[in-house]
Prior knowledge:
By secondary structure, the protein is mostly beta strands. It is built from 2 helices and 10 strands, in the order ββαβαβββββββ.
Amino acid sequence: MGKVIEAKVFAEARNPAYILHVDFGEEIGMRKSSVQIAELYNPEELVGRLVVGVVNFPEKQIGPLMSECLVTGFHNKDGAVALCIPDKDVPLGAKLC
């Protein structure tokens, strides 16, 4: 479990995307990710939001960004991605079970 600390437009991305800086707590730390969620979210509303992320995948180069985690979501009926988020507060770094 992580908290979005910073969100900005990923101008160099082929498809509309944001760069998220996500805090996964003391043990894991901060990680960056490219997310294609611009159809449903704007950067300002993402800051402070809890997100479910995968941190044990290899890093992936996405244009000029080295993506360090995968922020999870679901495709809705229109194909846009809605974030996978908890409905209660949980500690940063908590594992999905």
